Amino acid sequence: MSASAPITQDVMTLPRKLPEGPINLVGLTRDAMRDALIANGTPEKQAKMRVGQIWQWIYQWGVRDFDAMTNLAKAYRAELAEKFVIEVPEVVTRKVSEDGTRKYLVRIAGGHEVEVVYIPEEGRGTLCVSSQVGCTLTCSFCHTGTQKLVRNLTAGEIIGQVMVARDDLGEWPEIGAPKDETRLLSNIVLMGMGEPLYNFENVRDAMKIAMDAEGIQLSRRRITLSTSGVVPEIHRTAAEIGCQLAVSFHATTDEVRNKLVPINKRWNIEALLDALKAYPKVSNSERITFEYVMLKDVNDSDEDAHRLVKLIEGIPAKINLIPFNEWPGSPYERSSNNRIRAFADIIYKAGYASPIRTPRGEDIMAACGQLKSATERARKSRKQIEAEAGMGG
Ligand code: SF4
Q1: Which domains does the chain have, with CATH numbers?
Q2: pLDDT exceeding 70 applies to what percent of the chain?
Q3: CA-CA distance, 335 to 301, in Å (whole number)?
């Protein structure tokens, strides 16, 4: 979608209701699960307790079979199995990089595919999660930006990526085992395919499931949502999700940012910075991350570095410098290491942390900005595509 095209309503706020046929419990909020249980025969006065029990089986112990839910009566388990399913996306391919990074291609309803990347580091492990098939936007340095938006992911397909990775990492605890604080998957970044703020409700519900204290129990401080600058939704992120915020910033003038991040033509640098200055969750201990891809002779000059620190003055921030990761047909080159170091130096001397992100998983096309799936927007109408995912109006 070119930035000048009006961002149509159907992309921003899709009506959501429970799909026909066996209902997938994965991705339902506690309230929606309660409604679904009552609608399918669970006595109202028991429903809250049943939600608590089923929730723990699914999200604390990683159980996918109702019969294994031994604190529920056998007859009730059989009833549940008739009306509901516990499904996560199917893993189509799993690639492991020489540096340990894992990339999963997963298939979701309608046969669409998205990529998910797990990045192990010393003492932590980060999962890079996708929120759309393709992307609403067309950032020119990003491989996903060349893939037209096919559809938004449901909350189940977003949290399902976390569950699939936990399966692969063997991260589900033994049933009944005491709580173990060590985690292989300790952080989530919404930096995969898609603009998460153009799929707000599903992203919110999925992250609330990830943060729920009776399930996966990830702290909100270990979840980072990265936006290209959907200004009206930034405040909501603080109010309704409460996670950390990152911004695909990448340029210090509107002229250059219009080319790199076309949504800038809708909400320019000034509008974006105003929204960030008003972000309720920002503080010195919870800084906003400014992502800055280093593109040779495009946005990497000393003037750019000085302008960048001037622009973000007054915002508790850290700047992630991302050496550009090339992809087939990409129109840019990565800045030289010396140029990146010189740029980082200027920012650091201005008092900002300016870590240079180590490209991970390049050998399996898993590095930042390299994700793209083969799913093209077939000759199907948007209604058909959302109906497949049970998001139909
Ligand atoms: S950087 Fe993000 S918003 Fe921009 S095209 Fe890529 S996935 Fe979409």
Answers
A1: 23-85 (1.10.150.530), 90-388 (3.20.20.70)
A2: 90
A3: 10
